[in-house]
Each structure stands twice: as C-alpha cells, then as structure tokens.
Amino acid sequence: MIEWIGVIVQGVLLGGLYALFAAGLSLIFGVMRLVNIAHGDLIILAAYLGLSTTMTFGVHPFAAALLVLPVMAVIGYVLQRGILNQTLGPDILPPLLVTFGLSVIIQNALLEGYSADPQKLSAGAIETASVNLGSLTVGILPLLTFAIAVGVIAGLQWMFYATALGRGFRAVSDNQDIAQLMGLNKAHVFGLAMAMALAVTGIAGILLGIRTSFDPSIGGGRLIFGFEAVIIGGLGNLWGTLAGGVILGVAQTIGAKIDPGWQVLAGHIAFLVVLAVRPNGLFPRVQH
Amino acid sequence: MGIPTVYRATRASRIAMIVAVLALIVLAAAPWWAGRADLRLMGEIFLYLSLACLWNLMAGYAGLVSVGQQAFVGFGGYMLFALTIFGGLHPITAILMAGMLAAVLSVPIAALIFRLKGAYFAIGTWVVAEVFRLTFAQISALGGGSGSSLPVGIVRSLADGRSAREALSYWLALGAAILVITAVYLFLRSRRGLALTAIRDSEVAASGLGIDIWRTKLEVYVVTSAFTAIIGGLLFLQKLRISPDAAFSVNDWTAFVIFIVVIGGIGTLEGPIIGTLLFFLLRETLADFGTIYLMVLGAVAIVVMLKAPKGVWGLIRDRYDLELFPLSYRIKLNDPKDT
User: Fold this and answer.
1) Is the separation of the CB atoms in A241 and A132 below 8 Å?
2) CATH number for the domain including B114?
3) A–B: how many Cβ contacts below 8 A?
C-alpha cells in the first residue's frame, strides 16, 4: 500500500515538470493562438545552454539559469518578431509548418554542436537528497521542481490578471485589431509573450537536464507531454494545466510500476481516455 | 452573346498527359535499362511521391494537417511482417490486407482525434503514432524494441532470383505511385472532390451549401490511412527489416513528406511531384553533409512557407496559368457566329 502511495506521490511531483513543459505552450496559445511544434526542441536547447554555461563558468545549474533564462527570452522575442509574427492569421498551416521546420533545424543544429551523446546537468548533492514524510521518502529535487512549477503558474496567473502587461496579453487575445486601435503594438506584445514563454521553457529545460539525461532527439517527446498536460487540463486554464501535468505524471509512474516499458504508453492512454470522455479537458475555461 | 462553354482539359494538360504516358513507358522498362542502385532509388522516389500525394490530399484539401502519418506507414510495415510470418500470407496479399486493416483501425482513431482542432489535431496524430510505436515495441514476437527481419523463405516467395525480386519491388512501387495519383486525381474530379475543394476554400461556405464536413473529412482520413499503410508495407518490403524506431520515424515518414509537399506546392496535384523531384535532387547532392542537409531543408521549407506559400508549382501556375492535371473549370465565351 505504502509502495503505491509512494508511486503516486512521485507521479504528482513529476507532473510539476510536465506542467512546466506545458505552461509556455499554454501561454502562447492563449495569447496568439499559436501552437509551437518546436516547443520541445526549445526545452532541449535550454538544457544544452545550461550545460554550456555550467561547463564554461564552472557554476551550478541553478546559477546557470540566471544566464539561460534571459537568453531564452531574447531568442523568443527575436523568433516571434523575426519569423513567427509573419505566420499568424486565419490559416493554421503556416505557423504549424514553420515551427515544424524550426524544430528540425534546432534538433540538427544541436546534433551538429553537441553530438548525439546523452548529457546531464550535474547539480551535486541536491540530486540525491531526500526528506522523510512519515514512512515516505521524497526526493528534494522533485519537491523543488513541483514547488517551482506552482510558483511559475501562480506568477503567470498574477501577471495575466494584475499587471499592465497581462492586460495587454488579454486584450490582444480577445481581439487583435481592437487592441491595436487602443494603442497596443501587437507585434511587440506577441514578442513579449513568446519571450516569457521561452523563459519558462528555460526553467523547464534546466530542471529536465538535472533530472534525467538528454540528447538532441528527445524534444518531440517533451512537446507531446506538454501538449497532453494542456489538453487534459483544458485549454486556456493554467491551473488546469498543472492538474493535467499531475494526471499525466501519475499515469506514467503507475504504468512504470506495472512494467517499465509501459511508462510513456500509460501516459498517452490516460490522455486518449480524457479526450474520449471529456474532449474539452477536465477543467476548461468558461466560454464567454 | 454566344453560349459560354465550360471545359476542363487545356492544351497544356493534353500535352502533359501524352508526356506522362511516354515517361511511364520508359519508367516501366527501367529494370532493363537501369542499374541496381538506380532502380532502388527510383522505387524509393515513387513511394515518397505516393506518401506526399496522400499527405497533400489530407492537409492541402481536407485541412487535416497530420504530423502522425508514420503511424500508418509503420503499421503497414509491421502488418507485412506479422501477416507473412504468422499468417502465412503472400507478401502482396499481406500488404493489401494491411491497407484494409488500417482503414478499419482509422475509424475509431478519427473519432477520437477529430475532436482536436487545427494544430492540436496535428499533435494528436503524433500521440497516436507514438502509441503505435510503443505498442509494437512491446510485442516480443515481432522482435520488441530491436525489431526483426523478413525470413528468407518469405522473400523468396515473391519471385525467383534477386534481380526478378528487385524488378517486382520496383514495379510495385511504380504501380503504387500511379494508383495513388490516379485515385487522388479522379477523386478530386468527382462530386466528392468538388465538396472537398469547397471545404478547402471555405468551411463555412461549404457547410452552408449542405456539405457534411465531418463525414467528408472522415472519408479522406480513412482512405489516406489505408493507402499510407499499403505504401508502408511496400517500403518495408524494400528494406526487408523493421524496427519500431524505423517504422514510426517522424522524420522519415512525416517531416520529409511535409517538406516535399510544402516546397512543391500544397493543395495542388502537381506540387508533390515537383517537390519529390526537388527533394531527391537535394538529397542526392547534399547527402554527404548529414545534419547540415536537414537544416537546409528545414530552412528552405520555412522560406517557402513565408515567401511563396503556394510553393514552386504555385509560382509557375500563377505566372503561366498552367495546370497539368485539369481539375478546375474554365469558361470559354463562344463567338455568336459559330453557334
């Protein structure tokens, strides 16, 4: 029994990481209706940037985040204003195909720069540290990841509903043209949204890199996990995305407990079941 | 004013038809004039051409942008192995059977993923492909994660001698490409094809005219899945070896196919043909550069999508009003004196 509780707790904490994968995806979909196929590869890019930073300056991955996050944000802003803004419109094909092309470019650029060998970010003692909760032992790193996920989502939520920037995001999301008439520069607002999304992606990438080994080919899989968390939780609901991540994480750890080969498959099946039963996700935002 | 007449075939399309027939005769005779490596490459080109036409039918006409077609390519490949090894079927029967099974399987899949809209549909198809990959990786009878080879006896049952087998495999690929292009062409010229073209141009207007959009899309999805599985069977009949990672590779069976269609011209029948030729030209010249080549391909696709979203064929068509496959209707105003 206690064994299964342990499995579920691990799943919940893993869900925090998936929610971080998903938060950026959810944010840019919410603001500009863009689905970024390259999202997973950008997470891996962040992990590699973290790797290069720790190697070059000999610093802890958490310190490397101080550099990686701004760099990712700048990449996001430039990407959005340079390329992605041109793809936005009623036709879904251009953003889809352009981000798909970006995904292939990033993946192969990482392969060229870092080779296909698996890498890992070394975070020292914190990787193996744990606390005892009753008869349960929980790793510090998964706990910290989950806490960061909750913090990031609370922060995004606050930004959306309590700041001028968030008001801008909501305005362009509701009606781009009227927002433009009211003096918002939508190209700039979209750039800021992508910058913020990629900063979150940077956090996700560094935590992923500390948790597991990574190589250039695994981006697609991370995109799928993030996407599943978004759909399970319900589109446009950030706390729902966290819940979606948790459900996905729990399904995966339970699957892995039954048979290690079933970990990822169990997550996909949970997603398909939710899609069959509640096509709008478990906690869809109320339609206005 | 005379009575205007409506016509479809143009002089260019008639010439194109004659050239195509002549080219086909030359291509069908390839086993007698081409070397072994060339024959293999051409077989691969025809199979990629088929995949591109099918993906184009889905994405360019039905608006179903899938990044998970590798699900059906891999399924077709695995069914070839399973039905010949365990079912004792002849490879060609097994491949046709794979197509039928894929059609049956695609209905419940469509019922699920059609709930996702636009780009989310795309990622949903990818999830389905991952489910396929992980499931086949669990089947130890088919070699699990490391895959298996087609037993020699089954390969021999195809034809006597290596060159006869290679010729047969080539003709199957050529035949599949002709079949797919003809089927897509006839479908688009039919009443249903007209409905599909209307959906492509405007879903709202099409539904206003009484077209059942969901049903039309479902039909396209099912037919495409069946043909894609058949092509998958043929691809792995050429390779003679299958593994989950090769069978369900998103790069090989979807990324390349998407690039082919986008660069050639999405939403046209000529586009995939031009795109396939350009893709293989690029691949054969840049193959030594490995990852750089893929980055160039991705960059070319992005530039085409941003600067010339109708692709190479779109540029040609807009400039010269050319149409090699007569799909649209043209109107000629007759001189009153003639009538």
Assistant:
1) no
2) 1.10.3470
3) 116
In a domain, B133, yes or no: yes
A272 closest CB neighbour out of B65, B112, B295: B112
Write the ipTM: 0.86
Interchain CB contact of B95 with A (< 8 Å): no
Q: What is the DSSP string of A245-266?
A: HHHHHHHHHHHHHH-GGGHHHH
Tell me, yes or no, if A143 comes closer than 8 A to chain B by beta carbon: no
Domain-located, residue B70: yes
- Is B127 in contact with A265 (Cβ distance < 8 A)? no
Query: And the tokens for A255?
Result: 């699957």
> How many domains does one find in chain B?
1
Q: What is the pTM of this model?
A: 0.89
Residue B63, in any domain of the structure: yes
Indicate yes or no: CB of A265 within 8 angstroms of CB of B266. no
**Does B266 touch chain A if contact means CB atoms closer than 8 Å?**
yes
Does A260 reach chain B within 8 Å, measured CB to CB?
no
How many folded domains does chain A comprise? 1
Q: For A88, which residue in chain B has the nearest alpha carbon?
A: B306
A136: DSSP letter? E
Shortest Cα–Cα distance, A67 to chain B (Å) = 26
Find the domain containing B131 and state its range.
5-330
> Residues with Cβ < 8 Å from B339, sequence gap 6 or more?
B2, B3
| Residue A193 within a domain | yes
- Whether residue B165 contacts residue B155, with contact meaning beta carbons closer than 8 Å, is answered with yes
Alpha-carbon Rg for chain B in angstroms: 21
pLDDT in tens, chain A (288 residues): 778 888 999 999 999 999 999 999 989 888 888 889 999 999 999 999 999 999 999 999 999 999 999 999 999 999 999 999 998 887 878 888 899 899 999 999 999 999 999 999 988 888 888 888 877 888 899 999 999 999 999 999 999 899 999 998 888 888 888 888 888 888 999 999 999 999 999 999 999 999 999 999 999 999 999 999 998 988 878 899 999 999 999 999 999 999 888 899 999 999 999 988 888 888 877 554
- B337 falls within a domain: no
CATH of residue A30: 1.10.3470
| Domain, as residue range, for A9 | 2-277
